[in-house]
Amino acid sequence: MRLANLSFRYARRAPWVLRDVDLHLPPGTVAEITGRNGAGKSTLLRLLAGVTPPTRGRITDRPEVVGYAPEIFPVEQPFTVLAYLTRMAAIRGLRPAVIDPWVDRLGMAALLDVPLADLSKGSAHKVGLAQALLAPPGLLILDEPFSGLDAQARAELPRIVADVAAAGGVVVVSDHQSGLAGYPGIRHLHVGDATVQPADAVAAAVDSSPASGTVVIEITVDAADAEAVAGKLRAEGYQPVLRTAEAAMPGRPMPEGREEPLPAGQAEPAGPGAPATPGAHDAGEDR
Amino acid sequence: MRPALSLTYFKITAYLRSHRVILPFGGLLVVMAILYSVRVNVGQELPSYADSAALLVPVFAWAARGLLDAEPDVQRLLSITAVGRPGREVASGLLAAVALNAALALVALVVPLAIGFSATPGPQALLGGLALHLLSLLTGTAIGALTSRPILPDPAVAALTLLGGYAGILLLSLVPVTWLTVPIISWMRAAGQGDFLGRSLPGLAGATLFWCAVALFAYTRLRRTRP
């Protein structure tokens, strides 16, 4: 499955939620999407699932069978759990018997005769997961799948993900709860600033930072704007240090910090409490 | 085809269980009571059917809108993934709305046979009534689809657009240019004249089907970016 130059915005003049995203998700991939609230994670998941068309670009080789478990399952429906799942199976052209394994694995036996409207949050979430899994999915999209789940279902979900991936399926998960932390081979993707990029570099930078948990952010600015940008950062309580671009090049000695606008300079702000010496631990990542 | 039909059945079941059908069914009963509280004289059956078809357009529109809106928005997304393609979900919704309205139209055709007409009408009046109610239910379905939640999310705006759209069509169809809009007024005028099936119906049906096709095409196009 491949995303090529994928862009999306909700209206003609609205800001881009995603812009020129290129992504390759080969069979067997398990990918975790991270990003702040409102960054476009759910939008990306809906684009991947094929329920929302991209504004520009295209998605090719999307698997035929897609399972999509939403962040919040819509319980405002006049069915019991069993009646709902039976009908969803019928829509997929399947017999009601396909429900049984998921009733066992997700611990839903006591829920089958309960009206959807009476379900707790976690129980409703299980129904959302089950309907996505009724047919073996070639693409499984899980939006916050661990939210509200009990211990049994939380333990079972990584095994379900592994089964789908082992069968050649692609699994894409948005997960704030780190339920798949430590999952072997998982691919981390970060959504932010309308782009999707590997989150490993960001995570590595944070992991390699000292115990104080600080990182250095390098911001390249026009020389004429350097003092103004530095002033804004000072107002926020940071300690920006200005250096020439030449001085910031790897392999060259770092000069002592000084606050003066320089041609093609770089402002290097450090958080309150961070070491005053510039370049102490250069993350090499714009954030 | 089978998944789409299963989804159609799912949508109708959800709608009926939600009791939303009570409102349009009540509207249908009101129209029937107004039209047939006094027995229709022999020979006036087709004009009565034409009045019924014209008055039931907003009832059919309300029923179609209610059915299409019965599903929560997120369930519509789940239905799209389950049925395989967004187009199938749209088609299932429209098919469900047409099926529901066909049932309501059948009631509108049968009630006067039981309690409204002085005598059982001939085949010309029956066929004419059937054709007019088909045109009416298609018109209502198209208006209902265009005012459903994916297209007009605000319920107040949607309701006003539905009723305003019907009123606008009625006013426009007062103009003696049949092709300007769905010729609802012309349905009623033509039904009172002779040889309705042979002389008037083809032109009226052509204009009605054209505008319904335009509206439903617009709906399906809009739904491509409004899942």
Automatic annotation (TrEMBL), chain A:
Record keywords: ATP-binding, Nucleotide-binding, Transport
Species, as recorded: Sphaerisporangium melleum
Organism domain of life: Bacteria
Compositional bias of kind Low complexity: 262-281
Domain ABC transporter: 1-219
Pfam families named among the record's database cross-references: ABC_tran (PF00005)
Ranges where the record places region Disordered: 246-287
Signal peptide range in chain numbering: none
Protein name: ABC transporter ATP-binding protein
One of the record's GO molecular function terms: ATP hydrolysis activity
PROSITE patterns reported for this sequence: ABC_TRANSPORTER_2 (PS50893)
Automatic annotation (TrEMBL), chain B:
Domain of life of the organism encoding this protein: Bacteria
Protein name: Uncharacterized protein
Membrane-crossing residue ranges in chain numbering: 21-38, 94-119, 125-146, 158-180, 200-219
Keyword Transmembrane helix annotated: yes
Keyword tags: Membrane, Transmembrane, Transmembrane helix
